[in-house]
């Protein structure tokens, strides 16, 4: 929602200031300039990125309009789910959760937290490392190194769409200049035309530069930064799980194990100790 509000503020400020300065909005409507700038930017985007990044980028944009999924409610469910897994393993033995981690979609524990289960990568991360822990063949420091490597790789993957969009933002002012130069070329063809005709051509050419810069700094650049923030928030979820798993592996009780994970969260989404304790008890 904030993404949409921000875009409207940019449009309202630029258009409103222009109109109040006695500008004519119709002059800013130059569809051929938009085709040049938008088409060139999209073509560069397709050329620069592999297919999976292009697909992932288009998947990310609609989700940004709805706001981040990684909020306090999700993290409270995630920590409560980790507690349930640890508690079952502690009471019934690590073998008791084998069915849960092999078939998470059928597990009563996982099914109780649909908001978490929707994030398949988080569930897969939990199940993979619970399997490794249950095997009993790895030391905590070995598991931590493996987790760090996977989280680093995952963060790189999550940031790829943001970098791709950021490259487009960097290129847009240049494509705006390209459109402006082409507009000046058209103007020079009609150099003998009356001043009012020349003025119209020059104004249309300048709009190309304006559109490229506005699109870059007002829309596409901020979109890239929003994608980076979302990638960082998702990476924090993996770090939260990592902290919980390592604490439990080192013999820390379930209630304190999830406290290790809670401490990894950013302050704006981190539940208090009491909030988490009440949430766990209410499940």
Note down, in words, how this protein is organized.
30% of the residues are buried. The chain contains 12 helices and no strands. The chain has helices at 2-20, 31-48, 51-65, 72-92, 98-102, 108-111, 114-117, 120-135, 140-189, 195-249, 254-262, 273-282. The chain is elongated, with a radius of gyration of 26 Å. It is 80% helix and 0% strand. By secondary structure, it is mainly α. The protein has one domain. The model has no long low-confidence stretch (mean pLDDT 90).
Order of helices and strands: HHHHHHHHHHHH
- Average residue-wise pLDDT: 90
| Structural class category | mainly alpha
Beta-strand proportion: under 5%
- The coarse overall form would be elongated
Distance between the termini: 30 Å
Main pleated sheet: none
List the domain count as a whole number: 1
- Number of beta-strand segments: 0
Provide the gyration radius in Å: 26 Å
Number of helices: 12
- Residue runs with pLDDT of under 50 for 5 or more positions: none
The helix fraction, in percent, is: over 70%
Protein name: Chemotaxis protein MotA
Main location: membrane
GO cellular component, one term: plasma membrane
Pfam families: MotA_ExbB, MotA_N
């Amino acid at each position: 929602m904030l993404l949409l509000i921000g875009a409207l503020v940019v449009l309202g400020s630029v258009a409103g200031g222009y109109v109040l300065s006695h500008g004519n909005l119709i002059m800013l409507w130059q569809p051929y300039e938009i085709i040049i700038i938008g088409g060139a930017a999209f073509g560069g985007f397709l050329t620069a990125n592999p297919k999976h990044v292009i697909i992932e980028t288009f998947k990310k944009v609609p989700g940004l309009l709805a706001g981040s999924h990684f909020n306090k409610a999700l993290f409270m469910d995630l920590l409560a789910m980790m507690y349930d897994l640890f508690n079952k393993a502690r009471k019934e033995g690590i073998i008791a959760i084998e069915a849960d981690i092999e078939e998470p979609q059928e597990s009563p524990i996982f099914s109780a937290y649909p908001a978490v289960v929707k994030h398949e990568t988080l569930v897969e991360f939990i199940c993979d490392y619970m399997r490794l822990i249950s095997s009993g063949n790895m030391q905590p420091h070995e598991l931590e190194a493996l987790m760090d490597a996977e989280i680093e790789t995952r963060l790189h993957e999550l940031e790829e769409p943001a970098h791709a969009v950021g490259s487009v933002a960097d290129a847009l002012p240049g494509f705006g200049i390209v459109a402006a130069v082409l507009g000046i070329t058209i103007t020079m063809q009609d150099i003998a035309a009356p001043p009012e005709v020349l003025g119209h051509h020059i104004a249309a050419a300048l709009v190309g530069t304006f559109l490229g810069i506005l699109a870059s700094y007002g829309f596409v650049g901020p979109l890239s930064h929003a994608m980076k923030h979302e990638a960082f928030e998702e990476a924090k979820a993996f770090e939260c799980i990592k902290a919980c798993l390592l604490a439990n592996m080192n013999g820390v009780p379930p209630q304190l194990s999830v406290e290790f994970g809670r401490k990894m969260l950013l302050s704006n989404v981190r539940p208090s100790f009491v909030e988490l304790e009440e949430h766990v008890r209410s499940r």
